Amino acid sequence: MTTPPVASELGLCLCHSCGLACDMTNEPHECERCGAPLHRRKTNALARTWAYMFTALAFYVPANLLPVMNTKMVGNGADSTIMSGVLEFWEAGAWDIALIIFIASIAVPGIKFVALTLLLVTVHRDSLWARKERSKLYRFVEVIGYWSMLDVIVVALVASLVKFQALADIEPRAGILFFGLVVVFTMLAAMSFDPRMIWDKEPDPSQNEEDMDEVASH
Description:
- The structure is a single chain.
- The chain is built from 7 helices and 5 strands, in the order E-E-H-E-E-H-H-H-H-E-H-H.
- The chain is mainly alpha-helical.
- The protein folds into 2 domains: 1-40; 44-200, Up-down Bundle (Butyryl-CoA Dehydrogenase, subunit A, domain 3).
- Strands 4-3-5 form a 3-stranded antiparallel β-sheet. Strands 1-2 form a two-stranded antiparallel sheet.
- The longest helix has 30 residues, at 95-124.
- The radius of gyration is 24 Å and the shape is elongated.
- The two termini are 24 Å apart.
- One of its GO terms (cellular component) is plasma membrane.
């Protein structure tokens, strides 16, 4: 089965800014449409992705341990972490808000850490395992990244609702800053990863022939 040619074989390069397929015959340094710098590959993709992901992981710990807001009701104040806020909303009957905060604050970052680690490790090992599925996994990481700030928005909405009450007040705490940094660095990690690295390693034809002979013998 013949495979279609790749962009490098056709002398094309996709602009990362406007998406134009640029002709690289004369090795232009800028996109002819938007003027953005052209790169055949994302520079230092593996190192940058690892660095951004470890930075996000370092911020993920204080983001979950430190309080994200302080709520004062009739003079009595109490700090709330992300998890304690989820439990408070759940016990108060606001299970939908609790579910949104849990998914956006705890589940989504955890999924992104696991998915990016899997992608990075398999690329480092030149693995041929499930390359199509790993490409889909990367696109999934990109999609869920757009919803990473959802719980920050929920906290802002809760704060605005509390402010309407005359005897109540709410203030942000350091945890919300660390969580914002987690969101930023996980998005940078996903943007730095080059999914074309998944397809760089070509299968060994001799190995494929051995596998086919083994199947035929059975």
